[in-house]
Amino acid sequence: MRRIGYVMTLLVVGMLLAGCADRGGTAGTASAPPVPPASGTTSSAPADPPDPARLIGSWTVAEADEDEGSILRLAPHDAQVFGRCGIRRGDWRADANGLFVAGLYGFPGPDEAEGCAPATDPTSHWLSQVTGFRSDGDSRILVDDQGDQIARLLPGARPTAGPDLAQSEVEPPVVTDEVRRSLAPAAKLPSALVPPARAALTGRWVPIGGRAPKAYVELGADGGWSGSDGCNGQGGRWVAGPAGALLATTGPSTEIGCANVPVGSWLGATRRAGLDGEVLVLLDAVGGETGRLRRG
User: Which residues form the signal peptide (predicted)?
Assistant: First the structure.
């Protein structure tokens, strides 16, 4: 009888301990391991990687300080802004780092709208601040060098042709395989070159060789550049990014014949830049050198 009582006591104690343990598990103690979230239940989807080809199209400009309601048409080889004061033409560049730069150069026809004075700089202030882009659903967000939004581009805009504009210049731009290849990520900077900080790029540079003593490029801290091939002035806008990324637009130029160095063409073809000591080496999309410059 004593043995039976002893066994019964052990059973009762075991049941009591099991009950306590069960109550502790349902109380949500701090020692309980967290439950991982189920797959696909994150609070926000990851951002799409930057794809410059997705910028091609006709967009309504929204949430911008200027040109609100205007149309920005980005075709593979040019940019246009259709606004109240006329049509401005220009150039743009973008890459897979999310860099973006655009420069506008003038009006194709007379500027007759009331209150529209001739523009000394056709690139609007808001557009000159843009150095990058990202996607937000069907919209594209243009941002400054701090990542702050400058404008939102809304899809589906439809510019109209006029007396100074052919119908082909307002139709939706087409993204071909050739265009996609031209916007593919650039070759990496060679290990022998040092990627420069943006501040190290600003200032005056002259081509190495001395064939055209008056040739130069001046990269401004405001994102504009000016220069000469030795006898023809030129300019545009530029932006720099990680791993030596460098993009520049080029504007129109005179065509005076002389012994020149095409520094504007060098910049327009450049996708990366690196320092070889004190020499700035410009590289195209496949890693070929477009030119070398030194401080001057």
Answer: 1-23
- Nearest one of 270, 273, 281 to 101, comparing CA atoms: 270
- 55 SS3 class: helix
Cβ 219 vs Cβ 228: under 8 Å? no
> What confidence score (pLDDT) does residue 5 get?
43
Residue ranges of the chain assigned to CATH 2.40.128.270: 198-295
Q: Residue 89, Cβ neighbours under 10 Å: how many?
A: 19
Q: Could you tell me the pTM of the whole model?
A: 0.80
Please list, in sequence order, all residues whose beta carbon lies within 8 angstroms of the beta carbon of residue 53, skipping any fewer than 6 positions away. Answer: 175, 179, 180, 183
Q: Per-residue pLDDT averaged across 35-59, rounded?
A: 66
**Ordered strands of the 233-240 beta sheet:** 246-248, 233-240, 224-228, 216-219, 203-207, 289-295, 279-283, 272-276
Residue 101 vs residue 118, higher pLDDT? 101
Give 132's strand partners. Answer: 99, 143
CATH of 52-109+118-182, one of 2.40.420, 2.40.128, 1.10.10, 2.30.29: 2.40.128
- The mean predicted confidence, pLDDT, of the chain is 82
Cα dist from 218 to 103, 149, 171, 263, 264, whole Å = 16, 28, 36, 11, 11
Tens-place pLDDT, residues 68-115:
999 999 999 899 999 887 888 999 999 999 999 999 987 554 445 565
Distance CA 151, CA 210 (A): 43
**pLDDT number for residue 119:** 58
